[in-house]
Amino acid sequence: MRSRVAYINTAVLRRIHKTYERYGAPIAFLFGFIWDNLTLIRIDFWVDNLIIAVHLVLAGVWIAVLTLHDGKYLHGRLETLGHFAPLFLQFSFGALFSAFFVFYWRSASFTASWPFLIALLFLLIGNEFFQKRYQLLAFRMSMYFTALYSYSIFAVPVIYKEMGAAVFLASGLISLLLVGAAVFLLSYVIPSELHKSRKTLIVSIGTLYLVFHVLYFTNIIPPIPLSLKESGVYHSITRSRDGGYVLEAEMVPWYDFFIPQKIFHRTSGGVYVYSSIFAPAGLRTDIFHRWSYYDEKSGEWVETDRISFSITGGRDDGYRGYSTKSSIAPGVWRVDVETGRGQIVGRLTFTVLAGTDVPKLVTIVR
Question: Which stretches are transmembrane (predicted)?
Fold first, then answer.
């Protein structure tokens, strides 16, 4: 009698799943994206990292369940669980890539990192259509490796309080070891299936590993875990007694926020560019302001100065710093806020005007 009831319940669940399958993926995507945006606050908060870690573990669990289901090792209610495993795996991957997109977006200058951001967005949206592809062992393991590597890139610097090529390479090795351990464990469950997919697994994961390296060393991956909180061009910057920054800015209309290229009216006092950069607690690194002007004759940007200062992480509103030029020619200027390797944290473009009336200045304290 119990077996008959269990069979009926299983049949009902499968029928419900088949009927509402097309609605389940969008609902899971929407719920996961909203949840991550509401709960993910700071890249070095232990709660935020715990949420990501839990989803990574859950994704590994659902991969294992799906693998056992494919190998006909599950029976009864566990077999029903295996039937729903692709949907649960899809939810965990959706939550992971949603979190990654949020954090990488905060660290990116779109003009420099748009290929990587678009790739993450593709994985985030494409995940809603990958449910059938998750039946393929090589595909789900490749997605898992991508998730592990995407997390390790910013988790390792947060833990070790350092950034740079060596830390990035360590992140890659950790990701390879973790996915290698997962494949090793699966080899005891489905040795024949794993043998069939071995070549595809090696090629796909090896290709992903190479792509991540190319994107990093061409400075396309954002300089995560750094993020630009604020930047601007000012007529004067001084330090107050309490350690704050007093900025003298031109009064602008409310809609100036939406104008990408600012206007600066040149005076005899020079030009100051201010930036506030968030870094995880305890992380120390050097930041550079690279000044360039647009040469209309050659159609290229010409670098004039690269000014550095050190930052220390931990402040919610970011570590504050500035650079200045005592004299500047009229025209279009750009200041890239970047790391020592040239990864762009943010970019400020403004037009310098000469011989015009200077608008009223306002004082801003940061």
Answer: 23-43, 49-69, 81-105, 111-130, 142-160, 166-189, 201-221
User: Do the Cβ atoms of 59 and 151 come closer than 8 Å?
Assistant: no
Domain extents for the chain?
Answer: 2-217, 227-365
Cβ neighbours of residue 60 under 8 Å, at least 6 residues apart? 144, 182
Contact call for residues 293 and 329 (beta carbons, < 8 A): yes
Which of 333, 327, 329, 265 has its CA nearest to residue 293? 333
Q: pLDDT of 307-327, one tens digit each?
A: 999 999 988 889 999 999 988
Q: Determine the number of helices (DSSP H) and then strands (DSSP E) in the chain.
A: 7, 11
| Cα–Cα distance for residue pair 125/302, rounded to 1 Å | 39
What amino acid occupies position 285? Answer: T
CB 263 within 8 A of CB 350: yes
Dihedral of the CA atoms 134, 137, 140, 142 (nearest 10)?
Answer: -150
Residue whose pair of structure tokens reads 């693998």 in the numeric block? 67
CATH topology for the 227-365 domain:
Immunoglobulin-like (2.60.40)
Tokens of 82: 């295996």
